[in-house]
Each structure stands twice: as C-alpha cells, then as structure tokens.
Amino acid sequence: MKNPRILIVTPEITYLPEGMGNLAGRMSAKAGGMADVSASLVQALHSLGADVHVALPHYRRMFHVETAQLVADELRKYKSHLPDERIHLAEDRCFYYRDTVYSRGDGNIKLALAFQREVINNIIPRVQPDLIHCNDWMTGLVPAAARREGIPCLFTVHNIHTQKLTLAQIEDAGIDAAEFWMHLYYGYPPYNYEESRNQNMIDLQASGCFAAHFINTVSPTFLTEIVNGWHSFIPDSIRNEIRNKYNAGCAAGILNAPDSADNPQTDAKIPFRYGPETHAEMKRRNKLALQHALGLEENADRALFFWPSRLDPVQKGPQLLTDITYRFLEKHPDAQLAIIANGPYQQPFWDIQNFHGIHSRLGVHNFDARLSALGFAASDFTLMPSLFEPCGLPQMQAPIYGSLAVAHNTGGLHDTVETLDVASSTGNGFVFDTYDSGGLFWAMDKAMDFFHESADVRAREISRIMVESRRRFNHEACAKEYIKLYEQMLDRPLVRKEMAE
Q: Measuring CA to CA, how many Å separate 385 from each of 70, 378, 419, 427?
C-alpha cells in the first residue's frame, strides 16, 4: 500500500522546504499564525517522507516572481514543472499583484472564490489526495467538494471570521456547486437547490465545519469554551457546527507554535543574543537598548513589562492596563511599561504619559518587528490580559526569551501559562481569573514579588523556563499532533515503515 497522499489547502504560508518545488524558497505570504502552522506542518511531513502536497494562491508579487522578470519561455517552463512537484498554485490574476493575503471589504469573497475554484476544479483532480486539510473560511467550500468525492477532510478553525454568499455567486465564479450544494451550511434549511440558489446565504466557515469529517481549533481550551457557550461574539452557525463535531467525537484542539526563528540564541533582530545560561547579563544589555530606543530611564535594575500584541479593546484588553497604569507605577517606583503595538487604544497610553509626565517610565511606540523582538529580549514580563484567545503566540514567544507572561486565564493562554511557584520550581508566568483591571493589577503585583526575589532565584527559574519553553512550544510538537489526527482519519500510518527507513 502506498503512502497516503495529503493535500494541505491554505491561503497563507511562511515558507516551504527545499525539495518540494523549483520555487519553494521564494514562497512566503503571511497574515497570521496560520502561515506558520501550515509551514511547520509541511516541513515536518516532508522531513518524515510523507507524500505531502500544498495548494496556495499564486501571489506572484509576494513570491518575488514578477511577470516582468519572466520571459515567455521561462514562464512556460516554470508552469510545466508544477504538475510534477508538490506545490500547486491557484492561478488567477486577482492574486498576481497583491502584497497582502486578505483584502478589505468584499474583495475577500473574490479571492476566496478564485482560490477554491482552482482547488476544486484543477488541483484536487490533479493531485488525487487521500486526505485534504483545509484552513479557515477561505477554504470553506472545499470540504463539501471533498465529501462529494469521498475524500476525508480535516478543517482547521484558526479564527472565528467568516464570509457569506449565495450558490449563484459560487457558480458565477466557475464552481459547480450543484454537485455538492447539500453539504453546505445555509442561513435557513434549504427546501431544494432551485429555491436556495439566489437568496439563501451560505456561511463559509460554518460550511467548512459542517462538511469536514474532522475539525480542530488552535487550542484545546478555546474548543471547550466554544462548545460550552462562552464568548457571545461567536455566531450560532459556527458554534453549533463545532459543537456538533465535538459531540460526535470529531473535534480536537491543537496548539499553534511560535516561529522557529523566535530564538534568542540566533535572533538577528536583537543586539545581544543569549541562551538559558547567559540570559542574566544579556537581557540586562537588551533592556538598556530598549529603554534607550523608547526614551525610558536607562536602568537595567528596573522591572520592565512589555505589551506585544494589538491594542484591541474587544479582544486584547488594553483598557484593563490603562485603568491601572498610573496607580501601578506609583505603587512600584522600580517598574516600567513598554507598549510596542498599534490599535485604537494607543492614544489613551499617550494621554496617560503626557498628563502625568511619566515619559521615563511609560514608553509607547508603533509596532515594529525588530523593536518587538527586542521587547521580548529586554523585558522581564509580557502582558497578555486578553478577554478571549483562540491560541495566542506572544505568551509562548515570551518565555523562550526569558520574559514571563502575565495572562488572563482563557483559551490558549490557559493551555500555555501556569502560575509560577518558586518553592516547587514549577510554572512559567502569572495568571488571573477575573477579567477586570483588579485582576490584572493583582497578577502584576505577583510578578513584582518575583522580580524582588534574589538574583540567584530569578536566574534559576528563568533558565528553567527558557529550556522548558523551547522543548514545549515548537512546530515539531504541533506537527506531531496533526500527524496523529491524519493517521486517525486515515486509519493507517502516514508513512509506511519500510519507506520511512
């Protein structure tokens, strides 16, 4: 029996391993964590010797393959290679000149339909996969098409975003939805195809969940929160389909992992690199560098709290911090805050800084990838007081850099941050249960208690946490969970033993 052939369908990816295609090294299109997960999974499968294929939109500009740089014969040669390789690009001019994965407004529907048209009409027939792995609403029609063909399909819910459209729109885009219309999720129960074609709206994210044979979210706790009715923003359509899969034993939670480049020993974005044994002195030097960049008092003996994520009051909870910023800094004269993030709540931090004249203790800066990496390397603590978190990455990146997370007990934060206990040398951060400014203040107080421990105790615990985090939060661990799921769905090993050897 041959190795089962896996087709991963994703609108974004960070990288592809060498050996998968003649342009693998040039392909990177990223909007979020989905790109990293897809890349790590493909890498792990390819390294294992699995028969893995990838379907992507052909983002020529982002892939650095400008049509002006390709003469006609090379373009023909390039295209002729694709069927023999493992990278399958969805061709449509709506992808060619883009510099971002997603559009604003209705443009996303056009992109999603063009991508799925090529996957359903051309790529699946060419690859003939034994299993298809789809990712989020931009692939929401593919599980229904896979079910029509009798191909097992896994659908990963990275975010709760969705788009809605009609059968007529789908068919006008060149997809013969009449072949699988009964496997889609509608606004109301369809009477028949003709009655539903023009006005019964189809939910793409809910359709992916409904039609797939198995689904997963990107953290175990977020899955149970959805099933148990938490988070009022989640549409009933998506919640009900996830709940149905969960109750049928066809849903799992698999944690994402940070980028493998997030390593203070090799990160070129930070001025002073270090490992678990050398973190104490090098983090002090990085702290001075960040303090200088943000205009803070340059003193390595200050406790530095870092805000790395979006300043989004709906999800990330920056209003909890603004409520207590001045009071916390007044209570702890040896503490500083560094905000390196964009979003609607940036202005309140500027206002607090200016009103109280605390520029030496509160730094606010637009997001910058290099400065953000320095934030992890320089800080003692990383703030993640999210109201909800499907997975979250900063709370996993932070301890790798020796910065301990201060986090609300929800979703992926619950799965990755445990309360630090110095006496038993366990845990990796500071967790609060009640989502309000008092809860955050309490957790930040606990962080300051740790900061005031002896230098030896702090060095010991941070070294331990850095080592444990590298072992625990990595793409290899994430990929292993997906591979187990594939094997469960296929009911056979992913790689035949004699082929693996």
A: 49, 20, 14, 18
